[in-house]
Amino acid sequence: MRSARLVIALFAAVALSAPPASAVSAPPDVSGHKQTLRSAAPKGFHIGTAVAGGGHHENQPYPDPFTSDSEYRKVLAAEFNSVSPENQMKWEYIHPERGRYNFGMADAIVRFAKQNRQVVRGHTLMWHSQNPEWLEQGDFTAAELREILREHIMTVVGRYKGKVQQWDVANEIFTDAGALRTTENIWIRELGPGIVADAFRWAHQADPKAKLFFNDYNVESVNAKSDAYYALIKELRAAGVPVHGFSAQAHLSLDYGFPDDLERNLKRFADLRLETAITELDVRMTLPASGVPTAAQLQQQADYYQRTLAACLKVRTCKSFTIWGFTDKYSWVPVFFQGQGAATVMWNDFGRKQAYYALRSTLAKRA
Ligand code: G3I
Known about the structure:
The chain is α/β, with parallel strands linked by helices and about 375 residues long. The protein has one domain: Glycosidases (TIM Barrel). About 40% of the residues lie in helices and about 15% in strands. Strand 8 (about 275-285), helix 13 (about 295-315) and strand 9 form a beta-alpha-beta unit. The relative contact order is 0.16. Ligand G3I binds near residues 54, 57 and 62. The site of ligand G3I has 13 residues, from loops. It comes from Lentzea sp. HJ3. Keywords: Carbohydrate metabolism, Glycosidase, Hydrolase, Polysaccharide degradation, Signal, Xylan degradation.
């Protein structure tokens, strides 16, 4: 038992450290004097990250890194001009009991963003996951539920009026097959699909300047799911519903190919006069037994990061590009995908990977 633990501990220790410098060839860096992502970014372009850590600390108080890791805060401020609360604006965090809000964690992030001249992406108002038990098990009437959602959106969006640039109003409402999540999503199940339009209307009422988005994963390509968004958004816009944006999360994996038609897909949404964005990019991989990615994996990862950014930069309305955490130290990936990890652009000690330099050079070339 003890030796099994030791093996696990050793494995973890190895996985935490960067490979020897010799194992990784340095990429050509054309960033010049622009030594951070935000300074390399073209004017008006938002380069963002999720804050502040995730599933990795399931058994520790939350949010830990944001409040207590000073190096983390330093890098967060220096490198990014956009932040997305990773969990802190989700229902279970911000509205833990009926009629009681907990704004503390979200407020702290919004304050930090202001101090550091960063914009904020609000995430999220309507989702099938991370809802509090009082809501999911509440046995409410349709009229009550509708009022609960209206009140939540008015309160949360209203509180951050003028401080949140983009809101993920509706998150992951379609399945990969392009069907509405009529069973998992409490709002759609209990109130019908029309509630989606209402959510956008209420959010717009609460903050007329915030840009309101549909956000999902596996919508990087032209496929059944992104087609479903395309059709729905067209319909909603024709009906005058205030939908302003469509975003692809982009949780990519080296175990799958790169979505080559990303640019083409984003462009068709841009052609509907919508803002587009990449909101949660990370590139995970199956780790070798050593726990340390190979040089080839790191190279391929850098390539995925670079191509995702390049696609966004080529689409006129894609002005917001967010990675889902910037250091492996706090990435959600290893907790959710056994044997996988190293998905972000920095090692645990904030040492930069090739993927980081690939992003910086690509930004600098377009600045
Ligand atoms: O904070 C609590 C802690 O108090 C509690 O004791 C513990 C027990 O389970 O849970 C802790 O919460 C965890 C939370 O992360 C913070 O660490 C949750 O269990 C865990 O499920 C949660 O994971 C988050 C995941 O969404 C849940 O769906 C990840 O951090 C977050 O990165 C991830 O983000 C999602 C986006 O919102 C939407 N797109 C996909 C993306 C990745 O799954």
